[in-house]
Task: structure prediction
Amino acid sequence: MPLTIHLTQLDDGPHHLQGKLSPQELELDTQDELIRPDSDLDYSLSVERQENHLLCRGELQMTFEFECARCLEAFKKKTELRHWSQLIPLQGEDALPVNNDSLNLTPILREDMLLSLPQHPLCAEGCDGINRSPRKAAGPPDVLSGPDEPSSAWTALDQLRLE
Ligand SMILES: [Zn+2]
Result:
């Protein structure tokens, strides 16, 4: 279910909305394979009608899994918009469509969430990814001295003693 509000709910003053939207409900497409949603979007908002627009404000939270743009390590991070606010016009060119007195707030939340995401996610500030070769990490493990080696050395020694 998308997050909608009925304008009549705002007749008596600000209305509080609290809940979750799944990435599917949010129709979130980060268009970036380095960024994947890892939780629902938590919202806690107050919506207020002010003449020809709605004032929405509150808190948005969502966790994403990122791949570090430098070292390619996966990491999770919560994106928090603590003092989020948005003025939604009800009239004019930028107005959102109102159907049967109800307005879908989902696209607004989706857009602002996407705008808050980093363009080049880093696992840590100053990540030293350059020194770590991603190709090496993804390839076959380095050939280390096998466990057989010492025993075969002893075997060789034993054989010498036997001779
Ligand atoms: Zn990194």
